[in-house]
């Protein structure tokens, strides 16, 4: 009995190298004589003391003494997007509100909402409403701790209001905030109207971003008049050294044509009229809005989509006389365009 056992054991012993060879043949990447549950140093993970195992920040379970990685629980806790510079990281990050120069605190602080409701949508009691109002008051005081911040908060609020009224993109609002901040840092606001300086910053941003808005439009949207806005703009642009190109009448053409419901053919014709007049130097020193209005009026006639002088004047916010003058001057180059 014992001999048969020994024989079986001997056969088993003799077959071990054969099984190892077969395993190596089935798994070429495995080192001969090495089991899956043992690391290169011959340490069996089941024999390790659990107290000597440490979970790393990356999710790996590591034996402190040997450095053996017993278990991996790799979870990528980073963002799923890629960014190659800071501006991309700021625009793609979804943690908190985005940073913006258009707010006096750059969007870093929070706000208490004005809806007097709890998380379930139920109305708050009178006592809790009063408490929330006191919290809002204190929060406003904390957010603006000095005169400079209060100045900036009011000015950027005016910029936001005017941007909404004028329908300009967010990029213009950001640029206007940057211009106003520069003026405030260089102490250009002292002794001047905050509304006028904020409007001047917005006008400069519109010019810089190629968004056609006239001084008349800015003056109508602002709480100050056109003349005061013009003076503030000249002062800001000179003191800050803003290099803004003169307004191009062609920039106003697409918006006027869109509001008058004119075709793309009229848009192209009006732009060609403005370009031809510019080559002749006809609109030098002229109002860009009036000249664009005259080009649109003439183009609508040339393309058989005529609009009245009054309609064009209302869209461009100029007088009919201005439209007529621009139209008559551009008649000189109409033959080359038509």
TrEMBL record:
Keywords for this protein: Metal-binding, Repeat, Transcription, Transcription regulation, Zinc, Zinc-finger
Keyword check for Transcription: yes
Region span, Disordered: 1-106
Domain Cyclin-like: start-end pairs: 157-238, 251-332
Biased composition annotated in UniProt, kind: Basic and acidic residues: 1-29, 52-93
Gene3D superfamilies reported in the protein's UniProt record: 1.10.472.170, Cyclin-like (1.10.472.10)
Each Sequence repeat, start to end: 157-240, 251-332
One BP annotation, GO: DNA-templated transcription initiation
Record GO terms (molecular function): DNA-binding transcription factor activity; zinc ion binding
CDD domains: CYCLIN_TFIIB_archaea_like_rpt2
Magnesium keyword on record: no
Function, as annotated: Stabilizes TBP binding to an archaeal box-A promoter. Also responsible for recruiting RNA polymerase II to the pre-initiation complex (DNA-TBP-TFIIB).
Protein family per UniProt: Belongs to the TFIIB family.
Protein name in the entry: Transcription initiation factor IIB
Organism for this UniProt entry: Halobium salinum
